[in-house]
C-alpha cells in the first residue's frame, strides 16, 4: 500500500512472522481470543478485555485493532502486529511509543492463544519487536510489565534481559493486583533468535524518524 507502508512492514524469525493485520487476519485473531487466552480464574491484563461476553469479544478485538491503526501518529504510534505461525494467526504483539524521536523508549504488550503457549513462541515474538526497536529504530530503552501471578510473562522478560523497575498497584476484578514494571536497555539486549526486518525504510516517517535513519543489514 503506497500511502500506508506499515502494511508492508514484516518481522520474520525462524518460526514466526509478525505483520500489521489485514481484515482477514483480524477475523482469525478474534477466533483465537474466543478459544481462550488464559485461565478464566485469573486476569493477566490491566484492562480485562477477555471478560467480555463471547458474543461481544470478537467485535471488541477487531474494533480495538482498527481503532489503534486509525489513531496512529508519528508522535504517538502503536504497531499492533499479529503473530503468524505455520500460516495461522496465533496472537498479537504490540510495540508502541510516545514522542519516540526524543525519548527513544518503547513499550510492549502481547498475548497468545492458550493452545500456542509454553512453546517458546512468546519469547520469539517479543525478541522480534525488540530487534525492530533497537536495531531498526534506534531505541535506547524498552519497558513492559506483568502481574506477579503471571510467571510466564515475567520469565520471558528475564530471559530477554529486562530488569525490575518498580511496582504498579491497581484494582482488577474488584481485587488488589500488583504488576512488576520492567526495563531493558539496548546494551543489555541480545536476541535469542535471528530476526529479519522487511519494508522498514518507507515506514520511518510514521515512527517520527527521518528516512536517513541507519537501517539494519
Automatic annotation (TrEMBL):
Q: Which GO terms describe its molecular function?
A: protein N-terminal-serine acetyltransferase activity; protein-N-terminal-alanine acetyltransferase activity
Query: Matching SUPFAM superfamilies, A to Z?
Result: Acyl-CoA N-acyltransferases (Nat)
Any Pfam family matching the protein = Acetyltransf_3
Q: Does the keyword Zinc-finger apply?
A: no
The UniProt record lists the keyword Hydrolase: no
InterPro entries in the record, alphabetically? Acyl_CoA_acyltransferase, GNAT_dom, Ribosomal_N-acetyltransferase
Residues forming the N-acetyltransferase domain are 16-185
> According to its record, what are the GO cellular component terms?
cytoplasm
Sorted UniProt keywords:
Transferase
Question: In its UniProt entry, what is this protein called?
Answer: RimJ/RimL family protein N-acetyltransferase
